[in-house]
Design brief:
Length: 78
């Protein structure tokens, strides 16, 4: 399943970062989000990099980003 299929709807940024990590092969497809959530919720190189990827994909128009009420991402419907 590719990124467009994994992020069709608004998704909290931490889960979206997990999806990107799975798409890049950092996390296995069978990996439970709850096991790696710490990587997205703490200040660390991996979590920061995955969040940065989301921001860059949004800036490029690949993803849409919404900041309120919480930061969320989805595949761009354009």
């Amino acid at each position: 399943m590719d990124l467009s299929e994994r992020l069709p709807d608004w998704t909290d940024w931490d889960r979206a970062a997990f999806v990107v990590g799975c798409s890049l092969g950092i996390f296995g497809d069978s990996e439970a989000f709850t096991r790696i959530k710490w990587a997205c919720w703490t200040d660390n190189p991996l979590g920061n990099a995955l969040h940065g990827v989301l921001l860059h994909l949004a800036a490029a128009g690949v993803l849409e980003r919404r900041e309120e009420p919480d930061e969320r991402f989805r595949w761009s419907v354009q």
